[in-house]
Design goal:
2 helices
Amino acid sequence: MFLYIAINKDENTGYGVTVPSLPGCFSYGDTLNQAIDEAKQAILFHIEGILEDGKEPEIQQPTLDTLITNPDYAGVQWFGIEVNIDHPDTQ
């Protein structure tokens, strides 16, 4: 599954990650690479929690143009990541 993630870096902190297509899914990393890796794990954990609650995840991936022009994400860096939700052990 391909998802966009928004990464925000403040001057004195690490990298905060938001996954717009999964409301409530956030992560953090001390480095950019760690933030991306942690985002993949957060996505898997988030989806697993939804499934454990007996629900189906509703993943609606906005277009990159829609995300870039959304004022809620002003100043973030955008990355596209691939997450294998069928086989989490391969991450």
